[in-house]
Write a structure and sequence with these properties.
- This protein is of the alpha+beta class.
- The protein has helices at residues 41-50, 101-115, 134-137, 147-151, 171-177, 181-186, 202-216, 220-229, 257-268, 281-287, 350-360; strands at 8-10, 17-19, 57-64, 67-73, 76-80, 83-88, 96-97, 238-239, 253-255, 272-273, 276-277, 292-293, 299-300, 305-308, 314-320, 324-329, 334-340.
- An eight-stranded antiparallel sheet has the order 4-3-17-16-15-14-13-12, with helices on both faces. A three-stranded antiparallel sheet has the order 7-9-8.
């Protein structure tokens, strides 16, 4: 059934409010117990938040077997890609920065464009796709960079996103400030042989997005709207543009958490939505194939993070600065979308990890 009433409750000490299933819910709704969760799934999260254990958490949406089983929103300070929004009273219709989860969505868009013959395959030479840069095309070492190296973030060039994204020395920010973002990315000094070294690189995503725009003749947002968002009935979208008017492919997308969960359900469904193949299944298989072994069992595919639960169940995810997370656990038919506001903090990842590992998975009988 579809729940059409809104329950808003205030919990301990009166400082924390959260909305449960909002009016006009656009997911079928099920009680946690009916989906194999403990009945206190939501109460466990509420108690942790009230105790201050989940500071900076803004939203959680849990989808099991294609049904909404738990949803929570918390007021908190937020930003829109560096612009201070103040304290926001989040609810089911509030857009939120996805930050680098945007990258995983751009990967889906590339797969759609590839199926339509609009973009080159991963084995194509990368600099050949930028014909204006004749000097780079003529450089034998640059010609070793392939489109697939950009998709897997294995370009082998100098790139540093370890600095805060408020620091102009951060390579993504430097790219945004550069007079030509694509030349900036392609012309970085080499530190490794292309294809031999993984380095987190939002510039690689910018290159991939440019290929989509060039091949489709549309802006990144237009292409995403027509080929991905409209088929999924996602109507509330904000995609931030840089000073040069180009949409930020690395970190600029803003969606509702519910709609982020739709993206996760699409991936879980192997690219299908309501009987339509939106993203090619073969592309998802390629994207979710590990290309790099990173740390603590984490791997990386084509703009997707990959690993396994302690029980050995594979999962895939999009990660974003501040605690954004799209978590997909196929064996449990589970999608969890988390939004948070601890931007530019090295421990922001602990927020979605706590939600998923300490609350959602333990409440599931067979995670």
């Amino acid at each position: 059934m579809i729940l059409r009433t809104m329950a808003k409750v205030t919990v301990v000490m009166g400082f924390l409010a959260m909305s449960s299933i909002a009016q006009g819910a656009d997911w079928p709704v099920a009680e946690p117990e009916a989906m194999g969760f403990k009945a206190d799934l939501g109460e466990s999260l509420d108690a942790a938040a009230a105790a201050g254990a989940l500071d900076y958490l803004h939203g959680v949406v849990v989808i099991k077997d294609g049904q909404l089983v738990m949803e929570r929103y918390f007021p908190g300070h937020d930003w829109r890609w560096g612009r201070d929004l103040g304290v926001v009273d989040f609810d089911a219709d509030t857009l939120h920065d996805l930050r680098s989860v945007t990258k995983s969505i751009v990967s889906l868009l590339y797969g759609i464009a590839l199926e339509e013959g609009l973009v080159p395959p991963p084995e194509a030479v990368l600099v050949d796709q930028f014909p204006a840069y004749t000097d780079l095309i003529a450089d034998p070492k640059r010609r070793r960079m392939l489109v697939g190296h950009a998709l897997a973030m294995r370009l082998g060039t100098e790139w540093n996103e370890d600095l805060p994204y408020t620091d102009p020395r951060n390579s993504e920010i430097a790219m945004e400030l550069a007079p030509d973002r694509y030349r900036f990315v392609l012309d970085r000094p080499f530190v490794k042989q292309p294809g031999t070294w993984w380095d987190y690189n939002g510039g690689a995503t910018a290159l991939i997005a440019h290929l989509i725009e060039r091949g489709s003749g549309k802006t990144l947002k237009e292409f995403a709207t027509e080929r991905l968002f409209e088929p999924l009935d996602i109507t509330q979208v904000d995609w931030i543009q840089g000073n040069d008017g180009i949409y930020s492919a690395a970190s600029g997308l803003r969606l509702r958490p519910r709609d982020l969960a739709r993206i996760g359900q699409l991936v879980l469904n192997k690219g299908r939505w309501e009987g339509r193949q939106v993203v090619p299944e073969a592309w998802l298989e390629d994207s979710l194939t590990p290309r790099s072994q990173l740390f603590s069992g984490i791997k990386y595919g084509y703009h997707w993070w990959l690993s396994e639960t302690p029980a050995g169940s594979p999962w895939m995810a999009g990660f974003g600065n501040g605690g954004q997370r799209l978590f997909i656990l196929p064996e449990a038919d589970l999608v969890v979308a988390v939004t948070a506001g601890r931007y530019n903090h090295p421990e922001a990842f602990k927020i979605p990890v706590a939600v998923i590992v300490e609350h959602v998975l333990p409440a599931l009988a067979t995670p």
